[in-house]
Amino acid sequence: MSHILAITNQKGGVGKTTTAINLPASLVAMKRRVLVVDMDPQGNATMGSGIDKNELEQSAYDVLTGKCHCTDAIIPAPQAGYDLLPANGDLTAAEVELLDMKMKEHRLQYALAEIKHKYDYIFIDCPPSLNMLTVNALTAAHHIFIPMQCEYYALEGLAALLETITEIQKVVNPALEIGGILRTMYDPRNTLTNDVSDQLKEYFGDKVYAAVIPRNVRLAEAPSYGLPALHYDKSSSGAKSYLALAGEFIRRSEGEKADTSLSADLE
Ligand code: ADP
Ligand code: MG
Q1: H or E element at residue 145
Q2: Given strand 208-214, what is the order of strands in its sheet?
Q3: Ligand 1 within 6 A of 33 CB?
Q4: Closest Cα to atom 26, ligand 1: which residue?
Q5: pLDDT single digits (tens) 184-217
Q6: Where are the chain's structural domains?
Q7: Which of 24, 58, 161, 211 is deepest in the core (most CB within 10 A)?
Q8: Beta carbons within 8 Å of 106's beta carbon, 6+ residues apart
Q9: pLDDT at residue 243, as a whole number
Q10: Which tens digits make up the pLDDT trace of 107-120?
Q11: pLDDT recorded at residue 188
Q12: Given this model, what pLDDT does residue 156 score?
């Protein structure tokens, strides 16, 4: 059964898109079948996957508004090895068009239902707000995966996200759960990082992943080459940290004994 995760945090710049590219690429390296869905009109996950958002024939916009079938819009990301449902600025219009549609919260869920059997994991990269696109992602998802920076305002922002989750559970998706909290741009030498980190563990317990993502310039450079860090600089701390995250993710999802060995070309 495929496992659908929405990568969400209404704060911008916390590493959602970086995670939506690099965690899937690492899971592909561990031989899992993965789809990445770009639900952000900025199309950063699309560009970072090596697909030009300005040259799309069909995109997430067409799928959400019923203009095309999911399979007609999904394309392989050239280097990363996962499949991509790409997005660009058109998606902003979907947000408005959806408001008048029936079952408007369920459009993505229904679209994915037809193709989800092809994948082990589906990751949805959400925009930095709690709009109708994010609601569609949270309705389609089994779990929410929350990247966050360990800074004071991060916790404050999380409270709003938790309220949204409760609301979604009440109205459209009672089974929605937090799948994991990922500490990004992590600096263990910073006292505030450690304080916030401790508070997160106190509140969320083992939902907080042991794997952390350090600040690493390779992670910031790789998207401009349309590559996950793993295929840009395999030896970088960024690439390694996302591989470690993928290992932990698989063990949590599939059990301690699951195979996390890398495909032969990456060993
Ligand atoms: P979001 O999708 O939450 O807005 P991004 O993943 O786009 O966040 O990250 C915001 C910016 O920070 C981007 O320029 C990205 O390349 C950079 N970035 C993200 N994670 C890291 C990291 N661990 N180290 C260094 N730069 C990072
Ligand atoms: Mg983003």
Answers
A1: strand 143-149
A2: 75-76, 83-85, 34-38, 121-125, 3-7, 143-149, 177-186, 208-214
A3: no
A4: 220
A5: 999 989 888 889 999 999 989 999 999 999 999 9
A6: 3-255
A7: 24
A8: 136, 139, 140, 172
A9: 98
A10: 999 999 999 999 99
A11: 86
A12: 81
* Residues surrounding ion ligand 2 at CB below 5 Å: 16-17, 44
pTM: 0.97
pLDDT for the residue numbered 153: 78
Q: What is the distance between the alpha carbons of residues 24 and 30, in angstroms, rounded to a whole number?
A: 10
Pick the CATH number of 3-255 from 1.10.1060.10, 3.20.20.140, 3.40.50.2030, 3.40.50.300: 3.40.50.300
Concatenating the DSSP letter of every residue in 181-231 gives EEEEEE-TT-HHHHHHHHHHHHHHGGGEEEEEEE--HHHHHGGGGT--HHH
Nearest-CA residue for atom 22 of ligand 1: 215
If one residue of 11, 14, 17, 18 were mutated to test the ligand 1 pocket, choosing by the most ligand atoms within 8 A of its CB, it would be: 18
Distance 16 CA to ligand 1 centre (A): 7
Determine if ligand 1 sits within 6 Å of the CB of residue 58. Answer: no
**In the chain, which stretches have pLDDT less than 70?**
1
Counting atoms of ligand 1 from 1, which one is nearest the CA of 15? 6
Residue with the smallest CA separation from ligand 1 atom 17 is: 220
Q: Whose CA is nearest to atom 4 of ligand 1?
A: 13
